[in-house]
Amino acid sequence: MRPHRLQITAFGSFPGEEEVDFDSLAEAGLFLIHGSTGAGKTTVLDALCFALYGQVPGQRNSARSLRCDHAPPGRGPRVVLEVTIRGRRLRVTRSPAWQRPKQRGTGTTLEQAKVLLEELEPSGEWTGLTTRMDEAGDLVGGLLGMNLAQFCQVAMLPQGDFAHFLRADGEERRKVLERLFSVKVYAAAESWLADRRTAAFRDQQALRREVDSVVNRVEEAAGPGLLTALAAPAASAEHTVEHTEETRDVAAWMEDDPLGWAGALAGLAEGAAARAAAECARSGKAALEARRLLEDGVALADRRRRHAEALTRSRALQESTEERADLEAVLAEAARADRVLPLIREVEQRTEAAAKARSLAADALNRATPLLDRDPLHGGARPADLDRLTALERERLDEITRLGELRAEEPRLAALLEERGRVEAEIAHLTGEQHAADTRLAVLPGLRAGVEARLAAARLAAARLPAAEEARRAAARLAELETDLARLDARLHDLAGRETSLAEARQKLPAALGETVARLAAVRAEAAGIPAARAAVATAAAVLDAVRRRDGLTVRLEEARRTRGVAVDRAQESRDRLQEIRQSRIDGMAAELAARLVPGDPCAVCGSPDHPAPAAPADAAPTPDDERAAENAYEAALRLRQDAENEVADLASRLDETLAAAAGLTAGQAGESLAAAEREHAALAGAAAGEPRLAAEVDRLTAELEDVRAQAEEVTGLLAETRARRESAVTEQALLSPRLRADRHGTGDAREDGTAGETGEADAGSADETGEAGTGSAAGDGAAGPVALGEGPASSAGRAAQALRRAEGTLRELGESARAVPGLEAEAAGLAAELEGLRERSRELAVALSARRTNLERIIADAGLLTARLDAARGGDPTLAARLERLADEAGLLREAAEATRRERDAEDELETARARAEAGAAEAGFAGIEDARAAVRPAAEQEEKAERLRALDRERAAVDAQLADPELIAAAAEPEPDLAALKSGRDAADTAHAALLSASDRARLRRDRLAALRTELAECLDRWRPAAERHRIAEGLAALAGGNSADNQWSMRLSAYVLGERLRQVVASANERLDHMSGGRYLLQHDLRRAAGDRSRSGGGLGLRILDGWTGVDRDPATLSGGEGFITSLALALGLADVVTAEAGGVELGTLFVDEGFGTLDEDTLDGVLDILDGLRDGGRAVGIVSHVGELRTRIPARLHVRKERHGSTIRQ
């Protein structure tokens, strides 16, 4: 990369256009960029970087604007660089974003950043490559092979940065090297390993909690008895060899080998269950024998009871003979009544139908009564005859047929009447039109003459329009100039005031800004302690939360243990209840077997086909369903007990974790710690609360100062612009006044003849005043002030406005007259055509009126004849249709009355027939009449109830007789009463002993099964946990090794630091080639794998630097170097880093290098050595530029670029 020419415009500290010819500077090989402090030496390098990358190095890139504040308002910032990169001659033109003045109005608008990238063709012409920011950046960066940070480190060699790099710790060096050398892959590997370590730890912790939970449940399930037995020497020796009497510790056994510990408990539970089962079997046999003896006694007592009950029931049946006779009599009478009941119901239905028919007939006759009263043959009081009703209906139907034939004449009459109205309307319209035509013919000749006179006057006015328009334009411009002059004078006065106030503000604002910046720095120093205070608050809050959770979990654990005790008790109660129900079923098994006996079939117990005395079930004897329900309840209680045990184990595990986090503090102590941390944080936050306000105040003052400076420059430019505009207006005003007088006289307006002299004098006075006002303003050095004449600008402006109004009035009148010419011509032609047309139309209207009057007379005659015929047919009705509708309604009423009368006679006949059949049926059934038969009817439910009662009496008699004849009952009645109380006492004692042993056996069995299941579950949990623990161990080791925190990592070196360390070793090797010469063979850099002094990070190794002193043979810290020694060392380091980065970028050749500052710390001999090294960099045509203000260098380096600082901005002299 070799720059040829750099052009800087309004950029940084350069307000104008400056140019640097790098080709002429490079001819000497070594050149100097010098100037006073703040002149803009570094700005030249910034412009070079901005042209290549569109950015400037370091913090300067975050500046609000790159435009020079001294540049004129309309001059935009721009950088043009001609450079050769990899054999391609390019020209880059860049402009940063800036606020330019608006093209219209006042204020500024944002001008976006721009770029133009061109390439020089062999023909000597520049060809555009792109104007897009991203494409230009990609092309230049790709050719250079490095980004901005790398380019600045390689080509610019900023000594201040390398001096800091030389003395920095390992972490800071790592950050710098990461910007220059990409180690993203290795850093990502470190992060990935750390994430895997965290994930593996979470996985194995979760699985370990599962193991601990199962161990707790095993301990709960075993109970104190088994745990005590396991601690005994004999029991432990049976299951493990490792746990001898001398070293036996059950707690350690449970921790080290939880699966073996659980297996030992399961073995003990197995032996206890076997012993309990044997004892239970022996007690069960004794209980069965006692129950058998009791069952035999109960069966004998039951047979004796059944025989006694049969005797009692037999005596009761003898007393129910009278009831049986009554039931049989009632049922026989009801059966006879049921045969007559259908006939009675038919009579009732016919009676109801006849009453309904009479009601309908009466209603129909009432509606037809008015028609019958008008009939002369009816007589009014005599009832209507069915035949007469039919005859009246027929008369009306015949009349309807006759009138229907006349309905066709009504549309014809309506058409005649409609035609009569239309003809009369046409006659009225034609009469009115003829009258209007005659009236218009009388006035048209006079109108035509008036229009022709106005047309002649309008043509004369059109000829005078051009002169009037010219006069109006001159008057309008004079009035506009008068207004502009007044506005410009006021603006000059306002700008002068603004200039004074802005000058005062520019003096006051810098002091206020400096004071505010100092206050902001003090506040930020206090705010630096906020992150540590916030972390302390978070830690204290976490401890307080752990204390609260610990207390809550303690209470919940106690409650869970109580709940578990209740669940255990309830499970035992459910187990006892199940045993009681099973025992009750065993006690009543004889009755349950007897219920399944079938006469003649062998007994399932004794095999006998005879069943003389089957056992009867006792009161509230349990059923198989009761036993199943009790068993389900017991299983549900067991599940609740298991859930309670799981809850206790989970809460105990969570409590252990919380106890560790709570650190043994009470809630009060944790609260006090949190309050103290919060108070400290609040104090710091309160002190730092003013930082945003002070920062905003600094920004506001800075922006205000910049704004004041910009406004001052803007006001200066506006003053000059306004004064120039006023001079131009005065000159134009002096030229227009004579033209206005000449144009106005040229219009020839008759109404201005009497005032022409007055107007001319006013115009002349206005011109004189204007000229004098302009002279006075110019004499005052451009300052706006009042006109020094007898009349002011307001009077002159008023006369100009008056002249403008007169000219516009004249132009408006002439224009209106001229615009009327086409209309008047068309109006005259139209009046002539209208006169001829009206005369022809008057003749046509007379002929049409005569024809229509003849047709009207004919229509009136035809309509009169047809109206007479229709009036005779309507009679008393309003219309023929109304008469037809009335006749149809009367015929319908008569038809309905006849039909209703006919249905009434039929219903009466059917009623008499049904009544006769019912009377005959009742007599045949033996009843006195219909009412007597209706009284004997009984409901079906009552009859069924009485019949069922008869059948029940018969069944009961048969059952009693069968029981009294049973031989077993007869034999039992002859035997003595058994002693059931003694038998029950023996049975209860045996059952109690058996129930206790059975309950113990069940508990032992359940404990054995529970422990076996938990041991299996524990084995599964351990199988899942052990691989996870191994994965965590491996991940922990790899992450610590890659992060530099492992004991195996001898140098505490991170993986990415190892890669960067190799780069640093290469840099040190390249730097020592130059440092050896510059230091006279005294110093060499050493790459140190150990952590730097003061490096607090645990993984800061691999990036250390030491200085080997050849005079003493001892290496030391770079911080011990003097200023000059540090300069040459950092310069060598910078040159070495440039070599390595250049090789990393693909070997791109840098034709020009810049060394920025630091030479003032060197003595004469050391300076000679450094210059020799820099002079050696010129090998191969490379140019080296030194940026410095040291005077000694100006005498040694003849090729110089001088940057001069002045009040209005910097300039460059080459």
Please give a structural write-up.
The chain is of the alpha+beta class and 1214 residues long. Among the domains are: 169-182 and 1044-1147, P-loop containing nucleotide triphosphate hydrolases (Rossmann fold); 469-517 and 730-811; 530-667. 72% of the residues lie in helices and 8% in strands. It contains 30 helices and 16 strands. Helix 8 (233-239) packs across helix 10, helix 15 (530-587) packs antiparallel against helix 17 and helix 15 runs antiparallel to helix 18. It is flat, with a radius of gyration of 65 Å. Residues 234-248, 379-383 and 748-792 have low confidence and may be disordered. Pfam families: AAA_23, SbcC_Walker_B. Residues 756-768 have a biased composition (Low complexity). Keywords: Coiled coil.
